[in-house]
Predict the 3D structure of the following.
Amino acid sequence: MTTVPPPAVPAPEPISPVQAAALRDGVLPPAEEVRPGIWNLAVPFRFGVPDATLVYVVEGADRSLTLIDPGWASDDDLQGLRDGLAAIGRSLDDVGLVVVTHLHADHLGAAAAVRRATGARVAMHRLEVEALRRERDDARANDVDIATWGLPGDLRAGVVEAWGSGRRIGLGRTAEPFADVLLEDGDVLPVPGRTIRTLWTPGHTAGHCCFVDEADGLLFTGDHVLPRINSGIGLGGRTTTNPLGDYLASLGRLVQYADLEVCPGHEYRFRDVVARARTLARHREERSRHVAEALDALSSPTLYEVASRVPFSGGIESMTGFLLASALTQTAFHAALLGRAGEVRPA
Ligand SMILES: [Zn+2]
């Protein structure tokens, strides 16, 4: 069966000429004031793609600073953050609060080091702390799942290393998962003089949160919505719900914020979150259709056999490790949402 791809929807344009120029030149954008007392920094991320995390710095009425996603750190190397804060005339010592959208190392990674260096409190959703603990205490549970996927033998070890017992999703294998402030949907961040509300948006991870600053017209979206990248689904450890269903529901939660400027965790700031959410939802519908076609065509397939028929960008043959595991688990989430999980045969 041939399928005609839908017309490609162009990615939203960058709002900021500074970020647009940096994108064109392939360099990190410089620090930029987005609103009075709110800045956007970019810190390098030395582990895969994308290669920078966007950090947002929010000044409270008492001049203390809040960081939304401090970015990646290795071995307490906070130089990228120190440089960014110096560029806006401030320093790490001014940071009193670190807010994290989700548990991935490119967002949460520097939190522990900032806390050690400054005494700043760290805030994230309760489910992220629970997921980090579960991953640390029971990483082998993922190995049991992986064994059922029907992976060719030469690919298995790399997937176990990246997704199973070798996996590191946040603070690293040895750090004690923690948060000083556990966030729930609707909570207002403890930033003096500002009202920034927590919007729980599970899907990318179970405790992923966006943050809404209506007075300044800003929506901080972490990895829930990015301008060009299709957010991965279910990348925060095992869950009791289907992360794909959660993700689509979380996209639906953004409709009321159409007028806000979108401040994502990577790439660049843009407008019209509703149009972008629609594109992302359409991408998921398309993938569900491909998974349904694969299930129609195969008799009692393994998960790997189903995923091999889904046109992932780059093709599944080119994938190993984390990317391959993500493609396979996504396939499983689509099959489950179609009500057809039972048609996939555990290997
Ligand atoms: Zn990220």
